[in-house]
Specification:
Elements: H1 2-10, E1 19-23, H2 32-50, H3 54-64, H4 70-77, H5 82-92, E2 106-112, H6 117-130, E3 134-139, H7 146-150, H8 152-163
Helix pairs in contact: 2-5
Length: 165
């Protein structure tokens, strides 16, 4: 959701953005049936998380967030309900207008290839079509924001390298 907010702000009049960093930002709208399917899947995951399902916990530690964030995740998941999950998905995958930003706006678009990251990859390509200054970095086998979550120092180096060019 943060990528969509940042990309929207960067395209607003009277706002100047020097560097826009997008990490797995799914900026494309999706058919309602796909959104409903994904939301249903996440509702199931959240409900299993509330019950501390061991398979969900192991998957969480492997692909979603490092184990050190498990208690924070549970604190959040315990208060989530079906409607809040649906609202989040409807917001994330709503219509987004790819605007031409000022040419001085440097854009870094990082994305993985695992799971829903195919939407982020397509979003990165559309962003580059609208803004040729976009630099795309693909992380093979990574899920959404996995580089940031599991290899923070590597993510920081990627961003620093981009900002330092």
């Amino acid at each position: 959701m943060g990528g969509r907010i940042s990309a929207t702000l960067a395209g607003m009049p009277k706002i100047t953005v020097e560097n826009l960093i997008l990490d797995g930002a799914p900026l494309l709208s999706l058919p309602k049936i796909m959104i409903a399917f994904m939301a249903k899947s996440y509702v199931n995951i959240i409900n299993k998380s509330k019950n501390r399902d061991s398979k969900v916990i192991e998957s969480f530690k492997k692909d979603f967030l490092p184990e050190r964030y498990l208690n924070d995740y549970f604190a959040l998941a315990d208060y989530m309900n079906e409607q809040s999950i649906k609202n989040a998905f409807n917001s994330v995958f709503s219509k987004f207008e790819f605007k031409k930003y000022d040419a001085t706006c440097n854009i870094l678009f990082l994305h993985g290839t695992k799971g829903n990251e195919s939407v982020s990859k397509k979003s990165a390509i559309k962003m580059k079509e609208a803004n040729p200054q976009t630099e795309i970095r693909n992380f093979e086998g990574y899920a959404h924001a996995q580089l940031l979550s599991f290899e923070t120092s590597k993510w920081i180096k990627e961003v620093q390298d981009f900002l330092g060019r």
